[in-house]
């Protein structure tokens, strides 16, 4: 398998190591639909395990994966050091708040998943957890969309029920914002884009009808979840990613049927009064609205501190310092509503180039494995495309639950073999490369 996939073979580690790594991956997958704190705990454990394996010299990564891991580490180090550089240069007057600064570790989350996944990945277990979890989240989202959620949640979960009380319909026919288990509609919808890639990959690549049916149900659940969350950018990204998946993975009548279903979804959206109102506000939000305002402030920070930025996590205090001149509000000052502009403003040109390098190396490695037939890499590549569509109008790393969801999918896409290859031709090619006889026609 390693000859075809270009990644390492499973490493001969103690059974306890394998169990620990499998538990971390399962916990991380549970966190995709359950709670941000679960994601953060699983990611911290993955980073720790990956660091131990690297220090002990127990990892043998493929060159392109090693390059991605190295770029992620360098980016993390620069982000960690950038507040100190900003203080020395006068670009900042204080250290960023602890919760925001702690997100520097998110930058190595995908690399950590790729490293520990080299030991072996319980693919079917992860797929089952992801599919079952998202179907439950979709059903919960349907309920939340129709019924005002009034159950008090434990305070330690730090979930804002106000997010579920937003009414995008009318008083006579309310349509509340659906947030799934996260109780936050944008985290719910943007996280769906991360998981949508693998579901589409299985739908277009699986050779068993029952798996395609289950994957199709999960895909529809995610699309409905995004629809019920009234997340405009997420819905647009989901539709574009679905079109890309149909063009890459499906042919003939199945492709036409898939495109027809997507067209029907667009028709349903256009017939919804609440969604029509949302879409009418979208262009005004970008051109002359809040997003343009936030981006303009971000550009002013870039022009003032182009090389080193204002320090990772310091976008909000730096933007609020211009409030008298720009009129920026506390909410809009959080980031520049664009990944690349926010990265440049916070970590300067150095951080921007490192971020470009990291995503470029990740994209190259995923494309290579997609061409070799990996289902996991195909799903990760679709998620990577969806991430960059959303990144045009959102700074996704601000919500750890969203960024860590993408990171897990990307890391798994770089792991050994994705258990199965796409279609009979890919498996036949693998058998020929290994010197084994192929199946009888």
UniProtKB/TrEMBL annotation:
The chain crosses the membrane at residues 25-55, 67-88, 108-140, 209-227, 233-250, 257-275, 339-362, 374-396. Residues 218-355 form the O-antigen ligase-related domain. It is found in: Membrane. InterPro entries: O-antigen_ligase-rel_domated, WaaL-like. It holds the Pfam family Wzy_C. Keywords: Membrane, Transmembrane, Transmembrane helix. GO terms for cellular component: membrane. It comes from the Bacteria. It is a multi-pass membrane protein. The keyword Transmembrane helix applies. This is O-antigen polymerase family protein. It comes from Myxococcus xanthus (strain DK1622).
């Amino acid at each position: 398998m390693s000859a075809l996939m270009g990644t390492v073979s499973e490493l001969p580690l103690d059974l306890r190591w394998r169990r620990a790594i499998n538990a971390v991956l399962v916990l991380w997958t549970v966190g995709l639909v359950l709670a941000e704190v679960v994601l953060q705990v699983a990611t911290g454990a993955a980073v720790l395990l990956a660091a131990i394996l690297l220090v002990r010299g127990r990892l043998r990564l493929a060159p392109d994966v090693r390059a991605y891991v190295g770029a992620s580490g360098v980016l993390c180090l620069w982000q960690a050091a950038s507040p100190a550089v900003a203080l020395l240069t006068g670009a900042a007057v204080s250290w960023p708040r602890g919760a925001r600064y702690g997100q520097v570790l998110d930058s190595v989350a995908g690399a950590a998943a790729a490293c520990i996944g080299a030991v072996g990945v319980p693919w079917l277990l992860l797929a089952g957890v992801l599919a079952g979890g998202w179907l439950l989240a979709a059903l919960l989202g349907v309920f939340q969309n129709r019924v005002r959620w009034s159950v008090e949640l434990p305070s330690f979960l730090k979930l804002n029920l106000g997010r579920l009380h937003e009414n995008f319909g009318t008083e006579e026919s309310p349509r509340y914002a659906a947030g799934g288990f996260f109780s936050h509609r944008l985290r719910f919808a943007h996280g769906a884009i991360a998981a949508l890639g693998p579901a589409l990959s299985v739908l277009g690549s699986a050779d068993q009808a029952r798996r395609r049916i289950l994957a199709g149900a999960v895909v529809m659940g995610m699309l409905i979840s995004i629809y019920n969350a009234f997340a405009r950018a997420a819905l647009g990204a989901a539709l574009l990613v679905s079109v890309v998946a149909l063009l890459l993975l499906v042919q003939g009548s199945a492709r036409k049927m898939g495109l027809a279903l997507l067209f029907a979804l667009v028709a349903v959206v256009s017939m919804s009064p609440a969604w029509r109102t949302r879409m009418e506000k979208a262009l005004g939000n970008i051109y002359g609205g809040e997003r343009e305002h936030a981006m303009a402030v971000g550009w002013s920070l870039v022009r003032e501190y182009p090389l080193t930025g204002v320090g990772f996590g310091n976008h909000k205090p730096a933007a609020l310092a211009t409030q008298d001149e720009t009129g920026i509000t506390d909410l809009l000052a959080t980031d520049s509503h664009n990944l690349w502009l926010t990265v440049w403003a916070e970590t300067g040109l150095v951080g921007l180039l490192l971020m470009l390098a990291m995503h470029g190396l990740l994209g190259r490695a995923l494309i290579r494995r997609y061409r070799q037939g990996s289902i996991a890499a195909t799903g990760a590549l679709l998620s990577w495309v969806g991430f960059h569509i959303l990144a045009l109008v959102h700074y996704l790393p601000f919500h750890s639950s969203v960024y860590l969801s993408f990171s897990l999918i990307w890391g798994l896409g770089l792991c050994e073999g994705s258990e199965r290859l796409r279609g009979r031709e890919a498996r036949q090619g693998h058998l020929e490369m290994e010197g084994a006889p192929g199946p009888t026609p």
